[in-house]
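Allow me, if you will, to draw on your knowledge of protein folds for a short while. I have a record of one protein: its chain in single-letter code and its fold written as discrete structure tokens. Could you please explain, in whatever detail you think fit, how the structure tokens follow from the sequence? The record follows directly beneath this note:
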Amino acid sequence: MSRDQGFTAEAPLMGIPGADAPPGGKGEWFRGAGGLRLRAAFWTPSTLVAATPRGTVILSPGRTEPIEKYFEVIGNFLARGFCVLAHDWRGQGLSARLLPDRLKGHARAVEEFLDDYDRLLDAFHDRAPKPWIVVGHSMGGVLNLLTLQADDRRFAGAVLSGPMLRIKTGKRSMWTVKMAVKWNLRHGKAGDFVLDNTDDPFAHTFETDALTTDERRYDLWRQQLYACPHLAVGGPTWGWLAFGLDAGERALKPRALKAVGAPVIIVQAAEDDRVWKQTNQWAAKRLAHGRYVEVPGAKHEVIMETDPLRAVFLAEFDALADKVAPAP
């Protein structure tokens, strides 16, 4: 079977004034695990920037995040001469949702996400020039790391922003949370919101919910969300929380971390209230070629931060890119 089989038609990319889709790309549908229709988008840099692309950045967003939220950083990578392959994970963006209620952030199993990612790479294998550099945020970061642990030979390296290796659980201990997850799954409540908290995405405000200190970028994303409400995702379900905890535990196995031969840079927000930065630092030390960089003053979404803070992330990307995909 051809690697390109599974594409059905062009998929939309939802731009708005001030945050339109970068030129040189288009959205496409592909088939994920179980035949789910998932969305990807592929960009090629202008020939004025690079006569021949330096390689491909494979970009994986975090929980609730669609491709559209990353238009700016996609433009940053294109300006550096890279092709960019971005995608919507199952259950979010314009990819197939897993429950009738589109606002429920649901998941069933880690294997489904990893299978989707493998199918994405297979679908674009012949179009995305090597070397491949992985970029992932939060949930995307932990799934990227699991992929590297399974087989890192396809990738030249990775830059991960606040990977979701251990979720912060507030005042509740991890033991209490795991017991609650087991009870709810056992009683058929996998598809219910955790603690009945819908976390309405349209009710968020910069003052109460922002994961960045950059109000302009926060407001721009809000405008994108209101322009295309179908992109919205609310609070996680018990099923998603079970998946999130399982993904982190798998990725943190010391032997699996040590087996990753590709260079991996973890760029971590110092003021992160979603994942434990200490855990990410611990993991970076156990990677064969790991590097941990903490960004003082940054909140969880480092890539969406103010220019001086997100510049740290871009500088780390540039340092890796210059080693594995030097500009001509």
Q: What stands out?
A: The first strand starts at residue 10 and ends at 11. Confidence is low (pLDDT under 50) at residues 1-5. Residues 268 and 277 are 7 Å apart (CA to CA).
